[in-house]
Amino acid sequence: MKNVSILVPESSVMQAIADPRYLFTAVNQFLESAGQAPLFNVQLVGAKKEIRLNDGVFSVHVDRLIQDVDKTDLVFIPALFGDLEKAVDANRDLIPWIVKQYTNGAEIASLCVGAFLLASTGLLDGKKCSTHWGFTNEFRELFPEVELVDGNIVTEENRLYSSGGAHSYWNLLLYLLEKYTDRETAIMASKYFAIDIDRNSQAAFAMFKGQKRHKDDEVKSAQEYIEKHVDERIRVDELADKVAVGRRSFERRFKNATNNSVLEYIQRVKIESAKRQFETSRKNINEVMFDIGYTDTKAFRTIFKKITGITPIEYRNKYNKHAMNIGAYA
User: Fold this and answer.
1) What CATH number belongs to 2-204?
2) Which of 11, 172, 220, 246 has the greatest CB tally within 10 Å of its CB?
3) Sign of CA dihedral 185, 191, 194, 198
């Protein structure tokens, strides 16, 4: 039987504690109803017996204190809530225990922004990690030694697992369930919980917010120019001239400040504008393409899919209830 320990940190998200418990206990019930033995010993663990969440709205009573858990097989670190730096600081006492369990052979899985607590252990240094798309800039600032993978739903490296944002952690739960059981059981659970089992990217849900939490005024000026002239064709050398910085120096400074090359930033701003138009207007795909300064339909479609994971028409049909296929290409 696999021991599954779900941490209950201070300032954590209630659903991210309840959902893994719900899944693995439900699978035990599925197995028992089929005449098989349960596979998982699921326990809530914490630094104290009762942890109050959401300003005391919820109260979680753990099954075991961390000092009473010498060895486990799988540890879940749920998403944190609020100011993430403060949330991590409030849970410093959990870090030695997480490291100890990993050293003893356990697998560690962070859900959504639970990655901040996992990264604080140092176990992710030099390794890949996923987290909520909306917190990537903050994560990179706090943990520059970690290789953050943009857009991934599930990232795995050396017994360390992390997931994308919000409810996409269900895909990590199913991934681990399949690993510990089999494909058939994972599919059964995905149907029971109505989760798309093979979704592997959160790119279609991401909203690009340019990294401006830096002190390079020339780069900020260039970012603002790009965002105000989304309908124009912007060349890197012209942009460098506008902020009076040599092109090579400008490109280096821009990448260091924003974690994007100049060209990537321009593309992301344009595609973000296209997404908003697809969501809210009745314009066809060619009209939106021209509005953001593209004239080559193949190039537009290629870049759009690279950034969002789906084609322009798929995106429009997904998010615009008035979407019409007239005048659009597939």
Assistant:
1) 3.40.50.880
2) 172
3) positive
Q: Quote the pTM value.
A: 0.67
Count CA atoms within 13 Å of residue 182 on its CB side.
Answer: 2
Per residue in 150-191, pLDDT (tens digit) is: 767 788 999 999 998 767 888 899 989 989 998 888 888 888
| H helical segments located in the chain | 14-33, 84-90, 95-103, 115-120, 136-142, 169-180, 183-192, 217-228, 236-242, 247-258, 262-280, 285-291, 297-308, 312-319
CATH of 217-319, one of 1.10.3210.10, 1.10.10.60, 3.90.1300.10, 3.20.20.20: 1.10.10.60
Residue 112 identity (one-letter amino acid): C
Amino acid at 315: Y
Facing residues of 45 across strands?
7, 64
Q: Do residues 96 and 86 touch, judged by C-beta distance below 8 A?
A: no
Indicate the residue type of 307. Answer: I
